[in-house]
Amino acid sequence: MKTKIYLSLLIIALASALVGGATFALFTDTATNADNTFATGTVDVSAGDQNYSVPIGNMAPGDNIAGTFTVTNSGTLKIWFKVTANASGALFTASTCSHGTGPAAVAIDAADTGWIALDPGASQEINYTVSLPLAADNCYQGVSGTLSFTVDAEQWANNPNPENS
Amino acid sequence: MRKKIYLSMILVILASALVGGATFALFTDQATNSGNTFTAGTVDVNLGGTLPFNVTNMAPGDSATRYVEIRNDGTLDMLFRGYVTATTNTAVGGATFADQLQVTVTLHPSDYATPPGYTAYGPPDGVIYSGPLSGLIGVDNALDNVDAAFVDGWPLMPGYVAVYKMVVGLPLETGNEWQNAQFVGNLVAEGTQFAHQEQGSVQW
Description:
Chain A is mostly beta strands.
C-alpha cells in the first residue's frame, strides 16, 4: 500500500514539472529596425600653391606684386574660413631701418578678408598684394622676407559668429 | 420429466429476454451544446513610425527628430521593451560616439498623429529618458512598460501603439576627435504576454 502512495506522489511531481516547464512557453514576438545610422562630417580645409604676377625676388621700391592662392573645402561640412598673412624677415620689418619709409607690406583684398563661407568641395581664390613703398629707404636694399598664410576653418552650421567660438 | 424442465428453462430465458428488451424502450433525450471553440491568442509586436533614423554629415550642434511606434497587432495584452544594439560605434580615447550623442525620449508626443486604427498608449508628452545614446544600448538598458503594466494597470493592449519621440543631438562642445565618427545600430522591440507574468521575473 505504501508503494502505491509513493507512486502517486511521483506522478504528481512529474505533472508539476510539466506545468513549471509550461511557464517558459509564454507567447512572445520581436520586431527589429536595422541599420539606423548616425555619422559626423568633417571640417578639412586646404590651401594651394602661391602664384605671383611677377617673380618675387629682386623687388624695387614702388613694386606691387599681386599674389593668389586657392582655398579648398576638402571636408564634408560647409565651413567658415579666414586667411591670415604671416610676414617675417627684414623686408617686412620696420625696425630694419632706423629712419625713412618702409617696410614692405602685405594686403589681402577686402573681398577675401574676414570669415568667408565655403561649401564642401568648393574653392575660393584669395588675392593679395605685396608692396614695397616707392619711398622705401635704401637700407631695404638686398634684404629679404618670408611670407606665409594661415587658413583657419570652422564648421558653418550652428556657428553664426565663428570669431567667438 | 426432463423435457418439462427444459421447457421451463426456455420460458425463463424468453421472459428474461422480454424484461431485458423493455429496458431499451425507456424515454431518453439528449442535448448538445456545440461550437465551443478554444483559440490561442497572439502576441504580435511591430515597429513603425519615421524609421530608419539616419543622420549623416552631422556637425556639433546638430540634432534630428524621429518617431518610433511600438504597435500591439496581436490579440493579447502585452508587455514590451525597446532597446538599441550597436553594430558600429567609433571609439576614441576610451569613449564611444554613442557616449557623445545625446538622446531625449518622449512617450506619446502630442505633436505626432496617432496612426489610424490605433489608440495612443500612455499619458502625453512624458520624458522617459534623457542622456547619452549609449544608455539605451543593450537589453539591460531597455525601456519597458513592466512597471506601468503591474503598478498602473497599463499593459499595451491590442490595438494600442506606444509612440516615442526621439531627439538625437550632438552637443556644440563635441571635440574635433569626433570628426568622421559613426554609429550604426538596430532598434529592437520585444513583446511578451502580460497574463501569468510576475513583475519581478518577466519572461521575454
